[in-house]
Amino acid sequence: MKRVITYGTYDLLHYGHINLLQRAKQYGDYLIVALSTDEFNWKEKQKKCYFTYEERKRLLEAIRYVDLVIPEESWEQKKSDVQEYHIDTFVMGDDWEGKFDFLKEYCDVVYLPRTPEISTTQIKKDLNKG
Ligand code: C2G
Fold first, then answer.
1. Whole-angstrom Cα distance, residue 32 to residue 17?
2. Scanning 7, 11, 67, 71, which has its CA 20 to 30 A from the CA of 42?
3. Distance between CA 121 and CA 115 in Å, rounded?
4. How close is the Cα of 120 to the center of ligand 1, in Å?
5. Are strands 30-36 and 3-8 parallel, antiparallel or unpaired?
6. How far apart are the CA of 81 and the centre of ligand 1, in A?
7. What is the mean pLDDT of residues 22-34?
8. Does residue 47 have an active-site annotation?
9. Residues 6+ away with beta carbon under 8 Å from 68
10. 60 has a pLDDT exceeding 90
């Protein structure tokens, strides 16, 4: 069984996220999403999520490509996650290009093109315009 992992906030779930998850799943049979907790998002990314971790987890678990959702609580957990979950391929959008190449020692590392024209930040801006 080929196992894939990806990380993210996945707030205000949109088709850019779905495109990423769909393509990530094509690298294996089992896709794990390490979902940023509310604390991690605020402390490390200064992101205040609209949906709580539990709500975002529930949404991700409803997606056919996703097999397991685990918490992302620190920047440092990736290496141990890859080892603990016997990951074959680590996948991220290419806004992170090169940032996780240190994982190449443990698994394949793939950066996929982001879906253009859509982001949680843009959704919030558009909604604020009213
Ligand atoms: N994404 C994408 N296209 C978009 C928006 C997002 O492909 N238009 C991808 C991102 O590249 C990422 C995933 O969807 O791979 C989740 O995006 P975010 O929730 O914004 O993730 P981020 O806050 O970048 O967190 O340790 C890594 C971090 O947790 C990544």
1. 14
2. 67
3. 14
4. 10
5. parallel
6. 18
7. 98
8. yes
9. 30, 31, 32, 33
10. yes
> Which residue carries 């069984």 as its tokens?
1
- Percent of the chain, pLDDT > 70? 100
Q: Based on C-alpha coordinates, what's the Rg of the chain?
A: 14
pLDDT in tens, 120-130: 999 999 999 97
Question: In this structure, are residues 35 and 70 in contact, taking their beta carbons and an 8 Å threshold?
Answer: yes
The rounded distance, in Å, linking the Cα atoms of 5 and 109 is 10
Read off the tokens for 23.
Answer: 């393509």
Report whether 119 contacts 93 (CB < 8 A).
no
Q: Where are the beta strands (DSSP E) in 9-112?
A: 30-36, 68-72, 89-93, 108-112
Catalytic residue (one of 2, 43, 45, 125)? 45
Candidate from 11, 17, 118 with most ligand 1 atoms within 8 A of CB, to mutate: 17
CA–CA distance, 76 with 72 (Å, rounded to integer): 9
- Convert the pLDDT of each residue in 92-125 to its tens digit: 999 999 999 999 999 999 999 999 999 999 999 9
